Amino acid sequence: MSDKKHYILGLLPLFDLLKSSPPVLEEILKKYGIDPNTMTGDTTIYQKYELKIIEEALEHIGEPLPGLKIGSQLNMEYYGVYLLMVMSAPNVLEAISISARFQGLSFMFSQLSIHHFDDYIEGRLIPPKVDSHIKNVIIDRDLAGSNRFLEVISPRLQQHVKYGLERPRPEDSILSRYHSVFKDSVCFDQDYSWFRLTTSVAAQKMPSSNTLAHNLYKSQCQILLNKLYPLSEDIASQIRYQLNSYEGVFPQISDIAKMFSLTERTLRRKLKDCHTGYSEIVDQVRKERAIECLVEHRYPVKKTADLLGYSSPVSFLAAFKRWTSMTPRSYLQQSDDRE
Questions:
Q1: Under a CB-based contact definition with an 8 Å cutoff, are residues 83 and 91 in contact?
Q2: Which of 70, 170, 277, 327 has the greatest number of beta carbons closer than 10 A?
C-alpha cells in the first residue's frame, strides 16, 4: 500500500489540546496545507504529515501525557460504519479480528495484529519507527484508544482485558493516570504493546450481533477502504497490508479476492501485472515478520516458528535459509555487527 492515510477526524482531540493557543494551531495546519474551515468528515491526511503535526504540536502542549489523554478522548462516533461492522460481529474474537483486518479505517498509527495462544488472545500493536519521545505518545494514544474502543463495542469486556505498554514505567506522580484509564490491569517495560483477553471471553457473543447487518457493514467498509487506497495504486501492497493483521495462518487467495470484491481470476491477473503472485506476497510477509521476531524481539527459533505458523522449527529454518542464505544465528550476528 502506498503511504498510509487517516481521516483527519482522528486529529481532533489533538486540536482540542491546542485550543488555548489558536494561532499556533492555525500556523501548524497552514504549514501542511490544511484549512480547518474547509475540512469535512471525508478529509484525509497522510500519516507522515500527521506525525509531523503531532511532533510540532507537542512543543506547545503542557499536558504531561498527551497520548493518554488523546486516546481516551477519541470520539467513537467518528468511526461510523467501521464501528457498526465491529459491533455487529458474531462474537468478541471476530469483532477484534475484523477490526484488525480493516484497521486502515481506524485512527491508529500502530500496526495491529491478532495472535492466538492456548489461554488467551492477544492484540499486538507495533508503532511506526519514530523518535522515542514521539513513540511513547503514539503508544499511549493507540493503547488508550484501543481500551476506549473495546469499552464501546462491549462494555462487559473492560473487567477481562489486560494491557501491556512498550514504554518505561512512569514516575509515581503520573502513574495514577494510567490506572485511571486501564484500571489496575496494566504493566510497563514490555517488548511490545498489547492487550489480552482469555479465550473464553473471546468466544462470547457480541451484544449487538447481527449477521445480515454485519455483512452489509463489511461491504460498506471495503468500499471505504478502496476509496482510501484505490486498487489502481498498488494491489500487491494492499494485500501485504491486509496480511499484516493475520498471524501464522493466512487466508486463501479466494478470501482475499472477496475482500476486494474481485474474482480470484481477476485478482491473479492484477498481481501478475504487478510481477508477483499471492504465494510470493505471503512468503515476503513471513520473511519480514521472521526478521522482526528474531532481530527486534530476540525470540528463540521455536517461538518464531510457532508464531509464523510453521509445523516445526526445522521447516522454519529451511525457509529462513531460503530467504537469507544463512541461519538465524548467522543473521543475528551479522545484524549485531552492523550496529
A1: no
A2: 70
Are 98 and 123 in contact by the 8 Å Cβ rule? The answer is no
DSSP-based three-state secondary structure for 186: strand
- Three-state SS at 4: coil
**Sequence spans of domains, the chain:** 63-202, 237-339
- The Cα–Cα gap between 90 and 115 comes to 19
What pTM value is reported for the model? 0.75
Q: What is the CATH number of domain 237-339?
A: 1.10.10.60
Question: Mind listing the pLDDT tens digit for each residue in 117-175?
Answer: 889 999 999 888 888 888 999 999 999 999 999 999 988 887 899 999 988 888 888 89
> Which residues lie across from 205 on neighbouring strands?
91
List of residues 6+ apart from 51 with CB closer than 8 A: 109, 128, 130, 134
Task: Give CA–CA dist 12/298, Å, rounded.
Answer: 37
Describe the strand order of the beta sheet including 186-187 as a list of residue ranges. 111-116, 120-126, 193-198, 162-164, 186-187
DSSP3 helix / strand / coil % (the chain, rounded to 5): 60, 10, 30
- Do the beta carbons of residue 92 and residue 202 sit within 8 Å? yes
Within 10 angstroms of residue 70's Cβ, the number of other Cβ atoms is: 28
CB atoms within 10 A of CB 338: 6
- DSSP assignment, residue 160? G
